[in-house]
Amino acid sequence: MKSQILSVALSGASLLALAGCNDPGFRGVPEVRIATAGEVAQCRAVSVITNEPGVYGPLVGHEAERYARNKILESAKQDGANTVVFDPVVPGEPVYLLRAQAYAC
Q1: Which of 37, 48, 79, 96 is most buried as measured by Cβ atoms within 10 A of its Cβ?
Q2: What is the total count of domains within the chain?
Q3: Where is the signal peptide (predicted)?
């Protein structure tokens, strides 16, 4: 009985790990590049996208920000964009909201 419970628990953990690997927030979106405002002068604006990292602090805040940025890239791809320009953030300060403009170049 204990081995069956352990087997079910390991299977569930494996499924969660695989789901995380497929989540663009974790793996990134290589089809969409990050650019500066000067690099998109000839591109067509597609959408404005915002996202909140949701977790703050020196230990997990950076990872939450990276996840939120990747989710913005995913949204841009779904909107038909292939380039994103993020609004600047203050280095070292907590990021409570990310805003980006998506472009088709």
Answers
A1: 79
A2: 1
A3: 1-19
Model-level pTM greater than 0.90?
A: no
Q: CATH code at 41?
A: 3.30.110
Residue type, 63: E
pLDDT tens, 23-51? Answer: 766 788 899 999 999 999 999 999 999 99
Residues 6+ away with beta carbon under 8 Å from 105: 35, 40, 42, 43, 44, 82, 83
Please provide the distance, in angstroms rounded to a whole number, between the alpha carbons at the two ends of the chain: 58
Pull the structure tokens for residue 88.
């600047």
Q: Where in the sequence is the domain holding 44, given as residue range(s)?
A: 2-104
Under 8 Å between Cβ of 68 and 84: no
Here the tokens at position 29 are 């979106």
How is residue 50 written in tokens?
A: 């915002």
